[in-house]
Records
---
Amino acid sequence: MRQAMNFSLDDTQTMLADSIEKFIENDYDFESRQKYSGSDTGFSIDVWKMFAELGWTAVPFSEDDGGFGGSPIDVMIMMQRFGRALIVEPYLANIILSGGILRRAANAEQRERWLHPIIAGDLHASLAFVEPQGRYDLANIATTASAEGDGWILDGRKGYVLNGRNAELLLVPARTSGAQSDADGITLFAIDASTDGVSIDDYPTVDGHQAAEIVLDDVRVDSEAVIGNVDAGFAALDATIDDATLAVCAEAVGIMQVLKDKTVEYAKNRIQFGVPIGSFQALQHRMVDMLTDCEQSQSLLMWATMVNAAGQSDAKRAISAIKYKIGTTGRKVGEEAVQIHGGMGVSWELDIAHYFKRLVTIGQIFGNADWHLDKLAA
Amino acid sequence: MDVTFSKDEIAFRDEVRDFFQTEYPADLLDKQNRGISLSKDDYVRSMKALHKRGWAGVNWPVEYGGTGWSPVQKYLFAIEMAEANALDIIAFGLNMVGPVIYTFGTEEQKQRFLPDILASNVWWCQGYSEPGSGSDLASLKMRADRAGDHYIVNGTKTWTTLGQFADWIFLLARTTTDVARRQEGISFLLVDMSTPGVSVKPIITIEGDHEVNEIHFEDVKVPVENLVGEEGKGWTYGKVLLQHERTNIAGVARSKVRLNRLYEQTKNSIRGAAPLSDDRNFMRRLAAVEVELKALEYTELRTLAAVASGTAPGPESSILKIKGTELQQAIDTLYVDAAGYYSLPFVPEQYGPDFAGERLGDGAETKTLLKYFNYRKASIYGGSNEIQKNIISKHVLGL
Ligand SMILES: Cc1cc2nc3c(=O)[nH]c(=O)nc-3n(C[C@H](O)[C@H](O)[C@H](O)COP(=O)(O)OP(=O)(O)OC[C@H]3O[C@@H](n4cnc5c(N)ncnc54)[C@H](O)[C@@H]3O)c2cc1C
């Protein structure tokens, strides 16, 4: 008989988890991560190719698209482990965000042209979901697309376009009708990054990743650039950002667990006043709180992922719950890890600082704690 | 009890305000207001401007060239300085080693060192912490062995803030190992950084800056006349200094000004459909910080008043340190949250003096997230906040 409650991984999930863990252990230590992060691309092309060869880039896509037919649970398994290794390869930009839009809204020809090379690891794409004035409101889109002849002209500005340095394809939500923060009237466009009028100003971000500000000035595209229906792009955008939010929460939980483990380890070994600092109750209780927050976050993450996988009606609420948790106690776990490491916690050389920076960054994207608490209280 | 200022005090405040508007280097205020990274020379010029006006030794007694100000005057000065957005005073000379020298030094040391400290002719750094001795400072291993009219200093100091700029360092080093208590046998030494055997190695911190250093001492010869006070009694002097450091770290005036600026920013930053000031969650958190800060402002005034009536800052200074740094960090967090996605770019070069392009992510402050990361140090240094709580529980509560 199938049991009602089951928190364990099935065989395929276990295999996926094992293969990622093995890869991290053998090929992705902190020094490699720092090297990839500091390279010209901002990640390792070879590692990315390997992700594709191992089928990890195919996980969330249907078998028709050449995918693995995986569920949000598979994505959670992967992202949590990516978090543990602080992976800088563009899984979020290419697979979750761009892939999420294309698999939901693109037609067969567009999938063939863009989605398949993304899955194969040959094309870098990014979703421009942030506008400078929009804060966390996805529907607040001031970038315009006006019809001209058979095509469209786009004007506007996008911020924090992930992997903007390497993106060859930009997925751009633009306003084709309605007021600036209406959900209706948003259309999704696929734009070649080399199109005239597209300027990309990329920059490193504090977490060792990279992003870009993008200005669209009189950018002309033909009608095949439209993904899905005109004025009806919001649903795919919103659902994709929900996926992405869950994905980074899984990453964050992985990071929190590492920070907790490393802090406990450090406290056992750092001697002050002739004893390990871990023997001070003032610190012991705080590490217990870190553990509790890790467990509570893991629970919310699994709940949110499972209700999403099951398509239940409280899925959105669950996503806001875990994102709020990461934005509050997640940040707290990071701060405590740094504090308990003393000066070592703020030194660039140690990995702690970098886990902390990624964790704080995750709290800042796709809606911070205040934003999601508002949704929960609405 | 009276919270109103006297006519004289108001006149004093106006005088200070006028100084920052007319005499203090305007280019430095401009740099500050535009969030441009500051150089050593900027700090020196700032402190020299204060010195020229006779205001460098805010806490110093008049006989050594200090202001001799009352607590209220010091408070007003700090507020005006923060309002003007003037550069922070670098504490190592003026607020740390200076007071130790005028309290415990010989007449000769006073004449030799104090004028240059007051005039910011010499940059000092603080050599207390060692790789194995942070919170447990009394376990420090640096040796200063007497050899005729010199000490020979060997060992490593770490986390030395702005040691790369320093001309001199004040050290705690062990002159005797044969002692009953570890706190004994430690001496307070002044060392010229250009002495052979001193080498400075940078440590890069979380936000990517070079602010701290590891400093190695290999057979460094230090003349005996650079010992402050009695040999082996350095721990006592070092502790007095730490208590001064703790009151200075609180930074209440700066926090007040930063919070006010953030209030203004929330009204003016259009985020989506409404200004940030419409975000009730955010504004409630801001208001809660404001309440604590107001309380701390008065706690600080009460401490200053006690100091004025003759006592050196006692264990109560630990309260200021804990709360002051917690509030600085809370304000950093609010700025980060206000900036949203625009806290994330890591582009230090855009804050360079010669950067001409359009900067990313400016609000009422720049570098919000970098500042947040950098200021995690505030609850770690100057005696970590945990150590402050230990001090309070032992010396105030008697536990
Ligand atoms: C940016 C920065 C600048 C600095 N500048 C200077 C400087 O200019 N000069 C200088 O001399 N030093 C400086 N310091 C060093 C600073 O004073 C030490 O970092 C601090 O004393 C803590 O020591 P530690 O880093 O070795 O941490 P540890 O002492 O190893 O402490 C690790 C953790 O254990 C906790 N802990 C330790 N003992 C206890 C206890 N008994 N009970 C409860 N908790 C405890 C601490 O609070 C901390 O959270 C600086 C540090 C930083 C980070």
---
Amino acid sequence: MKDSRLLDRDFGTPAARSEKMITLTVDGFEVSVPEGTSVMRAASEAGISVPKLCATDMLDAFGSCRLCLVEIEGRAGTPASCTTPVAPGMVVHTQTGKLKDLRKGVMELYISDHPLDCLTCAANGDCELQDMAGALGLRDVRYEAVDTHFRARNAAATSIRSGWPRTRATRISLMTRRNASSARAACAPARKSRAPSP
Amino acid sequence: MAAAIEREASARNLDVTIIRNGSRGMLWLETLVEVRTDKGRVAYGPVKASDVPSLFDAGFLTGGDHRLAHGVTAEIPFLKGQTRLTFARCGVTDPLSLEDYRHYKGLKGLEAAVAMTPAEIVKQVTDSGLRGRGGAGFPTGIKWKTVADAKADQKYIVCNADEGDSGTFADRMIMEGDPFVLIEGMAIAAIAVGATRGYIYTRSEYPHAIAIMQDAIAIARREGILGESVLGSSHAFDMEVRVGAGAYVCGEETSLLNSLEGKRGIVRAKPPLPALEGLFGKPTVVNNVMSLASVPVIMDRGAQFYRDFGVGRSHGTIPIQLAGNLKHGGLYETAFGLTLGELVNDIGGGTISGRPVKAVQVGGPLGAYFPPALFDTIFDYEAFAAAGGLIGHAGVVVFDDTVDMLAQARFAMEFCAIESCGKCTPCRIGAVRGVETVDRIARGDAAAIPLLESLCSTMKSGSLCALGGFTPYPVMSALTHFPADFDRMKEAAE
Ligand code: SF4
Ligand code: FES
């Protein structure tokens, strides 16, 4: 299963069409890509995979999962590599201590909103969410989640105070994106949210 | 009130003309009744309809003394201490009288602008040092230049009037009290960047502002200020008011643009910048009401005049909105540079409850809480950033010592959870976890405190926009400056 993923390698964002080439540095490697290419794709061309959940090269970048954050010298903050276009001479770092913590923190939030039924899930072992959690070294979830989208769905629609319809809406849009991204199978989050919750 | 005065006057056979003007911004004196006398305008307030007969008895029509009398309005210390550039006419004129507007130097800026080249206008605004009054403090002139330099068949001016910060009312005061200044500012922006259409995006909670703006636009159109030929020039510009449903996140510029396009108000990733691909994919100036309403005076009096106000890199004046537990709440326009303590204690007069101030939140629901120990912080963009806060839309909300800062931290997270556009994970899920984590602390779970800190740093650096990214400001400032409120173990033990 893992092998098939290697075959249809996902560059994260669609290829840019420009004739003009831009050269930048990603983690010390120089890479040249057409103007308009995302930092994520440029990294991917250089053989560096940046963590991601909401991006795929069949769709325009959306910038919602926040796992693909990178640091760019001379720029404030941690922009998302999928929505940031390359610029000449840009120096990008995709693996720093800060980014590691940040991505792990975001992943922890994802998992805190996810039912713990991986072992009985049909997508077990072929799941990007699982892969990412592993790749980012997430072992424990420190939160004691009370409001989750799956619990909220089963509860009476009136009882929840924290805006779950939005949570669910985004999840569904994420699911749709995931499904579009891969003909292999519906992805784990999609499957799992259909499972009965505890 | 107007009806009560009218009734009383006709009962006494007196001839009075009543003009409904905007607010002067001294909210503790509202309803404020001013009488034009030979001494100037004299103020009475706060007046209730039941006070009207006694005002007549006291001869208020000639400035007679009364327990609600405050003497000449312009001499009231709260007003006298101000530097009113943007709000020069607000509360003085009849909002919908173009004659009044002209009489008080209105349209001078636009007249100057039509005689200049677009590049000259952009330069003048850039030189004035005007920075976005909506929150981010981005230089207005630079934004305009980007739009002006972009090539497109259509460009837009969008005025962000989605005033949603707690304790803010400056935009509303301008729209209700001096709508023409906003129209003038937008027309100048349009000429500067080559835009022909403008939109004011405001919220349904502002029905009076909407109605007055619409009337003012109709008048401006009739009088040739808007339309095919702005003030007889070769520039065309027209505008309209659009009403949003009041989602806080729609004050974020890209979310606002989506809403304006009729889509769900969800934040867009930048780039592309709205200045290059904004409304309907066209180059768009998105400016706050305060920024646009400050443009006419800059065009009229010159860049240097405006620039000379303020301190450091914060030039000009800022309309500060004093609210919360304060004796003298209201709008105070002044040059940058006062300290927070001066604003709260001297100008605001301290708390109305008479209890000591415990915390002051500056910059709306996403702004930091300041303890009195930080009252020497200077009110400008840089000083506030250095103190771990932000000015935002310059709303100042004061709390006395009965406030529970843990509850305020919880509120910030809850606010974020409710108002989140739902696009990105740190904000969408993080805010919900934030509420739960604060609840754990409230139950005495001290281990949840570092977790809250870690969550805040994830939200701060990981979120796509300021809603998720700035929610940590109120939370962390509450935690840092008021740790005792988070120590529920001790409280339970006591
Ligand atoms: S931070 Fe919140 S409001 Fe802003 S884009 Fe993300 S989910 Fe939307
Ligand atoms: S991959 Fe999700 S934000 Fe970039």
